[in-house]
Design goal:
The complex is a heterodimer of chains A (118) and B (583). Chain A is an alpha+beta fold. Chain A contains 5 helices and 4 strands; from the N terminus they run E-H-E-H-H-E-E-H-H. The C terminus of chain B is likely disordered. The chains are: A alpha+beta (118), B alpha/beta (583).
């Protein structure tokens, strides 16, 4: 299984709702990453505001930042190699890398009904 | 009339938290209480976590984090903690290890995210918790008094189970508001214990301090409800500075007295249910042990002789000069900013009306409930060149949340829950309101826009960095509204925009206004005017009690004039809110 790591710029929250506009791309990435995590995929996100060590310690990411500054964020690594700089991956890319169908990333799960058995 | 507050009879719990709007006299009431309890033979620790604290002046002694015994009062210890300093230490500790590892632009981005108001709030709570959870302190002192209380927002965050399971551990879903706590998951027990002590009515009393003014009573009511909801049920209200008598022949004195009586009559319903005491309006300032003893004694009104204050003030401008200046320079966007209760809506309205009278087309926007403005203009026909709109923060936040959820596309239940949690972040309100007034500012091409609020420097800087970030994203999203993109450069342009800082001639309001100003300066915006509102000094009152108070305003007026303001106007205290039409 391939390993995906996303290095986010410093933000309050990973869905981007604190930004000046609702960034659909950020909310999409947040929910895609969330559902991939739920499927047990090897996918991680690091927020500069909370986890600067990840940015400093990862030589590849650090090099990109030294070259291009904060504007290079977000940076995405696939198996440790830089694949995306300054933009988030699309759902198609996620699907291809992790070998799942695009539909599986956007499809709504069946509504769960909980039944109480007293 | 409410019973006069007497700590010896009215204090029943070991922990006391004082809360209230800036400038109501929290610190003075806390100090007087501490001295009275110590005089009774109790061992007392007074802790100040108010960044505007003047505890050192009150006791005339240097204080630090470590409790120091007050030499002139047996059994009384005091300590002073500055949460801003604690927050900045935290910020520096977080950022320092990366200064030489990551490029400057990256480090700057981190720093700004850690400069919000919530970082300070959490740092303060961290300090409370140490003391609340420490059994040693509990055994050592009979009473521990705090001159500030944690806010409902902080406590709610801490009672969320996610604060511990999610926010602190998962880097993918960290909230920077909880920054000072992250990585400190091992403090969980301490915080829980602190929250438990707070909600134990046998241990903790929340003392709400208000002035006999409508806005501070409303604020006390809000705090009472919010903290009550979290479980801090043992509460007491102190109305501070109630004028006992007045000079019938002095117009200002009579109006001041009546204004107070009316405000007290209008005390919110829920607040009336709380045990209430009052402290009298006295002419002497509450510094020094003797005066603190006297204010809660049986004879609080006996006068102290004040030194004659010969401070000379340089000539001051009036509101008329502010209006002339904006009119002459053809300023397009005018913000009045200040803490709640200083009268920034009245000042905004007065400026708007003044500019209309000079022939300008003006649009006035307020974030206060619209009813307030309607009331202000009730008696007079609004000039045809003046239009008014309002921004209701609650409605804006609601719309914003709906917009986010709708635009997020197809989400399952888990994902919606996840998104909603992010939307509970405190930045949401600031951003939602900011977007709403970005749209209003757009109008300034046709008319002058006056707004009774301003974004904080922190919001502006966050938007600035996200703006750069959004440029990168624009190819794929391109959804930052045009009005928001254009706003920051316009706000920074002094030809186009004027910021008016509104404050009162008293210690805490001046301190708080200074903080707002410094934050704006960080975002490269310098306020054009300072307006000092509700000055008794400017009324020329001859009332025996009020005139001494009036003289004490001079030091604050002087400070604003000499250290803070480029241009400074002084506005006399007035009873009617109809300020706008009476100029």
């Amino acid at each position: 299984m391939k390993k995906v790591e996303i290095f986010d710029p410093a933000m309050c929250c990973s869905t981007g709702v604190c930004g000046p506009s609702v960034d659909q791309n950020l909310t999409r990435v947040a929910s895609t990453v969330y559902s991939l995590e739920q499927k047990g995929m090897d996918i991680k996100r690091f927020n500069l505001a909370n986890d600067p060590a990840a940015f400093a310690d990862n030589e590849t990411v650090n090099r990109v930042l030294q070259d291009k500054g904060a504007d290079a964020l977000p940076v995405t690594l696939l198996d440790g190699e830089v694949t995306k700089v300054g933009v988030y991956p699309t759902n198609e890319e996620f699907a291809e890398w992790l070998d799942v169908s695009v539909e599986a990333l956007t499809q709504k799960p069946r509504v769960r009904v909980s039944v109480k058995l007293d | 009339m409410h019973t006069l507050y007497n700590p010896k009879q009215h204090v029943q719990t070991p922990y006391l938290f004082f809360t209230g709007k800036g400038g109501v006299g929290k610190t003075s009431v806390a100090c007087a209480t501490a001295v009275a309890l110590a005089d009774q033979g109790k061992k007392v620790l007074l802790v100040s976590t108010d960044p505007a604290s003047n505890l050192q002046d009150v006791f005339e002694i240097e204080l630090s984090r470590e409790p120091v015994e007050i030499p002139s009062v047996k059994n009384l210890y005091a300590s002073n903690i500055d949460p801003e300093e604690a927050a900045s230490v935290y910020r520096e500790n977080t950022v320092r290890p990366y200064r030489d590892k990551l490029p400057e632009s990256v480090v700057n981005q981190m720093e700004e995210q850690l400069s919000g108001a919530c970082t300070v709030e959490i740092a303060a709570f961290d300090e409370f918790s140490h003391l609340l959870a420490d059994d040693g302190i509990f055994k050592e002192y009979d009473h521990v008094l705090f001159d500030t209380a944690p806010t409902g927002h902080t406590l709610r965050l801490l009672t969320l189970p996610t604060a511990w399971s999610g926010y602190l551990e998962e880097a993918t879903h960290g909230a920077s508001c909880l920054g000072p706590l992250s990585g400190l998951g091992d403090k969980k027990d301490m915080y829980q214990k602190a929250v438990e002590s707070l909600s134990d009515g046998k241990k903790t009393t929340l003392i709400l301090v208000a002035r006999p003014e409508e806005s501070t009573l409303i604020e006390a009511n809000r705090a009472s409800f919010e903290l009550g909801e979290i479980g801090i049920g043992h509460q007491m209200l102190i109305i501070n500075g109630l004028l006992q008598t007045h000079d019938e022949n002095d117009e200002v004195s009579a109006a001041f007295y009546e204004g107070q009586q009316e405000a007290v009559k209008k005390t919110p319903e829920e607040l009336r249910a709380i045990q209430t005491f009052s402290l009298p309006f006295v002419s002497y300032s509450l510094t020094g042990i003797d005066r603190l003893r006297q204010i809660v004694s049986d004879t609080p009104l006996v006068e102290f002789k004040e030194d004659d204050d010969n401070t000379e003030l340089a000539p001051l401008s009036e509101l008329k000069d502010v209006i002339d200046d904006f009119s002459d320079n053809n300023t397009r966007v005018i913000f009045t900013m200040g803490k709640g209760g200083v009268g920034k809506t009245s000042i905004a309205a007065a400026i708007a009306v003044g500019l209309t009278e000079k022939g300008h087309k003006v649009h006035l926007t307020t974030t206060d409930p619209a009813a307030h403005l309607d009331y202000m203009f009730k008696d007079s026909a609004i000039h045809k060149n003046l239009s008014i709109s309002s921004i209701d923060p609650e409605v804006e936040v609601d719309n914003y949340k709906k917009e986010v959820i709708t635009n997020a596309g197809e989400l399952n239940d888990d994902e919606i829950a996840y998104l909603q949690e992010d939307l509970e972040s405190p930045c949401t309100e600031e951003i939602a309101v900011f977007r709403a007034f970005a749209d209003v500012v757009e109008r300034s091409e046709q008319e002058i826009v006056v707004i009774d609020t301003a974004p904080t420097g922190h919001t502006l800087l966050l938007l600035d960095s996200s703006e750069a970030y959004h440029k990168e994203m624009s190819r794929s999203t391109g959804d930052t509204p045009e009005s928001v993109k254009k706003l920051l450069p316009r706000l920074r342009n002094p030809e186009e925009t004027g910021v008016v800082v509104v404050t009162l001639p008293e210690a805490t309001p001046v301190f708080e206004a200074t903080r707002l100003r410094n934050d704006l300066i960080r975002a490269e915006i310098t306020p054009k005017w300072w307006v000092i509102n509700r000055s008794l000094y400017a009324t020329g009152t001859t009332d025996n009690v009020l005139k001494i108070r009036a003289a004490s305003e001079k030091q604050w007026i002087k400070k604003v004039q000499e250290e803070l303001a480029d241009n400074c106007a002084l506005i006399p205290w007035m009873k009617e809110v109809k300020l706008a039409m009476n100029k």
